[in-house]
Amino acid sequence: MKHSNVEQTALWFAAIINLVMAFCGWLAFYYSNAQAILLDGNYSFIAFIVTLIAIRISAIKAKRTKTFPYGQYVYESLFSLSKGIMIIGVLSMALTSNISRIFHYINGEQLSALNTDIILIYAVAMVVLCAGLGLFCQYQNKKINYTSSILRAEFAGAKIDGAMSLALGLALYAISFVAIEGSFGFLHYIGDAILVSILVLLLSKEPFVLVRDSFVELAGGTLQNQQDREHIEAVLNQHFKQEQLIKDSFISKTGSSYLIAVYISGKTLEAMGQQKLNDIQTQVKAALNKRYPNTILEIILT
């Protein structure tokens, strides 16, 4: 199956699941009055909109134009960067609004108590949906050797959404067993706000890593995935080093497209001949294309 077909299948599935989760979140918020559930629903709806954009990017990224003679893979990196920033933005807004709610309660402002009856049902449903979505995106990405930045972003989003839903559901349901008149009665009013604040701090690392890696791709930096780097270098060494050709290499990634520059010795090339180099280059490209179908291999004489 082609890279784009695998990716688009996963993205359409993700769009449908995210829309279902958004409506479930809004409905659960209506009955529970839990701000954390509203955050969950809004997060899912934004993910739905962004996934529709990702589907369009997946359809056009391989098309070559005068402006993009090697394809439009830069949109993949731009999407991953944007989604990482979006996740950071949603988490930041959640942290700010819920810390504000905690201070309002401390200052004596009257807040509505949570209705936890529906929360456990909501949590179980959301965890199942998020787990299914995350595993499906990861499975589809595995088919194409984890080369899709878009599916990586979808997996990160589903994982964060699932973790939030699980923690929120269990914690908010547990609040229902706390006496509202007791020492911990405040949890009925700000328990969800406290939990959201903790979750934001625990889940913030992954979107920052996604943003960092996407920025490096857009800036033309070296490949950040150490496993892929070692695999590509092993292929290069296997074919070029046996002829004492390779002196150094540069590997970068933009979306699912890889640019590999091989620096070879001009003196060795003169002794070996151009035809031999062409044969080796063909063998290297064939070996790389098994795992990285969108690869550009450049030979640079030194």
Task: Give a quick set of tags describing it.
302 residues, mainly alpha, Alpha-lytic protease prodomain-like, GMP Synthetase, Chain A, domain 3, 2 domains, three-stranded mixed sheet, 70% helix, elongated
N-to-C series of helices and strands: HHHHHHHHEEHHE
- Count the DSSP helices: 10
Q: Tell me about the largest β-sheet.
A: 3 strands, mixed
Structural class: mainly alpha
Percent in strands: 5-15%
Strand order of the largest sheet: 1-2-3
Residue runs with pLDDT of under 50 for 5 or more positions = none
The first-to-last residue Cα distance is 39 Å
Let me know the CATH homologous superfamily of the largest domain.
Cation efflux protein transmembrane domain
Number of strands: 3
Count of individual domains: 2
CATH architectural group of the largest domain:
Up-down Bundle
Lay out the secondary structure.
Blueprint: H1 3-32, H2 35-60, H3 74-106, H4 119-143, H5 149-175, H6 187-203, H7 205-218, H8 226-240, E1 246-254, E2 257-264, H9 266-272, H10 274-289, E3 295-301
Parallel strand pairs: 2-3
Antiparallel strand pairs: 1-2
Helix pairs in contact: 1-2, 1-4, 2-3, 2-5, 3-5, 3-6, 3-7, 4-5, 5-6, 5-7, 8-10
Describe the 3D structure.
By secondary structure, this protein is mainly α. The protein folds into two domains: 3-218, Cation efflux protein transmembrane domain (Alpha-lytic protease prodomain-like, Up-down Bundle), CATH 1.20.1510.10; 226-301, K homology (KH) domain (GMP Synthetase, Chain A, domain 3, 2-Layer Sandwich), CATH 3.30.300.20. It is 70% helix and 8% strand. It is built from ten helices and three strands; from the N terminus they run H-H-H-H-H-H-H-H-E-E-H-H-E. It has helices at residues 3-32, 35-60, 74-106, 119-143, 149-175, 187-203, 205-218, 226-240, 266-272, 274-289, and strands spanning 246-254, 257-264, 295-301. It has a three-stranded mixed beta sheet with strand order 1-2-3. Strand 1 and strand 2 form a beta hairpin. Helix 5 (149-175) packs antiparallel against helix 6. The longest helix is centred in the first third of the chain and has 33 residues, at 74-106.
